[in-house]
Design a protein that fits this description.
- The chain is an alpha/beta fold and 600 residues long.
- The protein has two domains: 340 residues, ABC transporter type 1, transmembrane domain (ABC transporter transmembrane region fold, Up-down Bundle); 120 residues, Rossmann fold (3-Layer(aba) Sandwich).
- The protein is built from 22 helices and ten strands.
- The strands form two sheets. A six-stranded mixed sheet has the order 6-7-8-3-9-10. Strands 2-1-4-5 form a four-stranded antiparallel sheet, with no helix packed on it.
- Helix 2 runs parallel beside helix 8, helix 5 packs antiparallel against helix 7 and helix 19 runs parallel beside helix 20.
- 34% of the residues are buried.
Length: 600
């Protein structure tokens, strides 16, 4: 049951409702037993003409004797006794179903709440996980865990939650009453029941393994779909529709195969439990019939009532076996969800840390080393970025430029060494306060399916319309925005698909301007644009960088000629540093880069 620990933790917060559900279920079971047990005096009256049983010390039989009252022992009152018994049976059935409804009324919102909290916890954890976590995981796989696996937990585990309490209670309470009626016959039943559980357990044993396989195939199919939607232009341009179709069909058929295996095993549990239940019932019928016929150890009416109560156990036992197989199936989904929920947060917040309210002096990298999966990305980095200065990072692909910049907002934490802001280790500040003083403009514009105004105001949601317009003007975006239908209320589509590349990038710059941070990180913000768009975006960037501290990553060296210092990285190390003119005079790696781009 260890894999269900998280579900139990959610339940722990609702002890009162669980106790109330428990009470209603017990009352429902009691009234069910009493209503069925009224068959015994009913049958006694029909078979023998008497409204009571023979003198007995059996507490269960004595209870039903007392239910009939002394006045019903009058042989002239047989028809009224019959009517009285029927009224009692109807009354008890009504009470049973009333309490059963109340138990559902308590439990169903609770089940929905648990699934809702599980889904919310998953989303919250995704927001907390470091950037490095997502380089190892496919987006389709994570989406599958948050949709398919949560749905599996909802249907297979939380959906059968009522059976975890109701069915065992039903079986236990009914067996207790049966034991009171006939200890000898009930002990015989208790010997046979474990055999049923053993067989069902053997049948459902492989469900978890097949469910894990199905979950993996489902995530593969979702990943292929996500990649197809994101790369549809390339797929069509290179005529690889057949390749992608074949890949998805392979995933789909493997998923079908895995799901069929699950269905074969799961669906076998219910009919098998019914067959074995009927076999058990027949054996009890035979054994109990012998007790009635031999020495009259049981009265016939009592035995038939006993069978009716025993039949109350059959359906809960079947439901319990189905719940057990569903829980086995859901265990795989819980395991995949737990992998995300228990993933280590390597860049943790420091809520009790110092609040970085303003940037006063400098950013320092002291002997910084960063390694990922034993691969050294940065090594022995020593760098100071003074307030108000622009530092450019250049180098070939894979040199470590983006990783170095990512250390400032703590997208990663250093393996050794320190990153300091105003002389204080960045880890000693609260994470939120550090990032509140920074804005980032990336090579690929990250926009959301919302209006232009809401995208610009993402980092400053209290901004007025005038402030949004002013930020757009600084970013050279106001002119094209006003030409759009509905202007600033124009919906830009998924990831800004209704805008051109230059328009998207200028919106991200407007967003950064509106936040008005003292520190800017520009990660190749113009490298993917055409010449005209680059000029407009570069003008916007120059406007934004005024009076701010900037760390600029650039492939196009023409955009960083006026940087206060240019840092040249190769294989994670600083190999050259200086101004544009100084580096050219050195005749080193930077000069080769410039000559290749012909920017002199």
């Amino acid at each position: 049951m260890k894999q269900y620990a998280r579900i139990f933790r959610y339940l722990k917060a609702y002890k009162g409702k669980i106790a109330l559900y428990f009470l209603f279920i017990v009352l429902s079971i009691i009234f069910s037993i009493v209503s069925v047990g009224m068959l015994m005096p009913f049958l006694q009256l029909i078979f023998t003409g008497e409204g009571t049983f023979k003198a007995t010390n059996n507490p269960a039989i004595q209870f039903f004797n007392n239910m009939l009252l002394d006045s019903l022992k009058d042989p002239n009152n047989k028809v009224p006794v019959l009517g009285y018994i029927c009224i009692l049976m109807i009354s008890f059935i009504i009470m049973k179903n009333l309490f059963l409804y109340l138990s559902y009324y308590i439990l169903n919102p609770l089940k929905n709440t648990i699934v809702n909290e599980l889904r919310q916890d998953l989303y919250d954890k995704v927001l907390k996980l470091p950037i490095g976590f997502f380089t190892e995981k496919r987006k389709g796989d994570l989406m599958s865990r948050m949709t398919n696996d949560v749905g599996e937990v909802e249907g297979s585990v939380v959906g059968t939650l009522e059976g975890w309490i109701r069915d065992p209670l039903t079986i236990i309470i009914n067996l207790t009453v049966l034991f009171l009626i006939s200890p000898q016959l009930t002990l015989f039943i208790l010997i046979l029941i474990p055999v049923l559980g053993l067989v069902i357990g053997r049948v459902t044993k492989s469900l978890k393994r097949h469910s894990e396989e199905a979950a993996k195939k489902s995530s593969d199919a979702l990943s292929t779909l996500e990649e197809t939607l994101g790369g549809l232009r390339v797929i069509k341009a290179f005529n690889v529709e057949r390749l992608m179709r074949s890949r998805f069909r392979k995933n789909n058929e493997e998923l079908l195969h895995a799901k069929n295996h699950i269905s074969y095993r799961r669906d076998m549990a219910s009919p098998l439990s019914e067959v074995m239940g009927v076999m058990l019932f027949t054996i009890v019928l035979y054994y109990g019939g012998r007790l009635v016929l031999q020495n009259e150890l049981l009265e016939a009416s009592v035995f038939l009532g006993y069978l009716a109560i025993f039949y109350n156990i059959i359906n809960p036992a079947k439901a319990l076996s189905t719940s057990f197989s569903n829980m086995r199936k859901g265990a795989a989904a819980i395991g995949r969800i737990e992998e995300v929920l228990t993933a280590p947060i390597t860049v943790d917040d420091n809520p009790n840390g110092k609040q970085l309210t303003e940037f006063r002096d400098k950013i320092e990298f002291r002997n910084v080393r960063f390694a990922y999966d034993d691969a050294v990305i940065l090594d022995d980095i020593n760098l100071t970025v003074q307030k108000g200065k622009t530092i450019a990072l250049v180098g070939s692909s894979g040199a470590g430029k983006s990783t170095l910049a990512d250390l400032v907002p703590r997208f990663h934490d250093v393996t050794s060494g320190e990153v300091l802001i105003d002389g204080v280790n960045i880890r000693d500040y609260s994470l939120h306060s550090v990032r509140s003083l920074m804005s980032i403009v990336t090579q690929e514009p990250i926009l959301f399916n919302d209006t232009i105004a809401h995208n610009i105001a993402l980092g400053h949601q209290e901004a007025t319309h005038d402030q949004i317009v002013e930020a757009a003007k600084i970013a050279n975006a106001h002119e094209f925005i006003t030409k759009k239908e509905n202007g600033y209320n124009y919906n830009i589509g998924d990831r800004g698909s209704k805008l051109s590349g230059g328009e998207r990038q200028r919106l991200t710059i407007a967003r950064a301007v509106l936040k008005n941070p003292p520190i800017l990180i520009l990660d190749e913000a113009t490298s993917s644009l055409d010449t005209e768009s680059e000029r407009l975006v570069q003008d916007a960037i120059n406007n934004m960088m005024m009076n701010r501290t900037s760390i600029v990553i650039a492939h196009r060296l023409s955009t960083i000629r006026h940087a206060d210092e240019i840092i040249v990285l190769q294989k994670g190390k600083i190999v050259e540093r200086g101004t544009h003119e100084q580096l050219l005079s050195q005749g080193g790696f930077y000069k080769k880069l410039v000559e290749m781009q012909e920017v002199r």
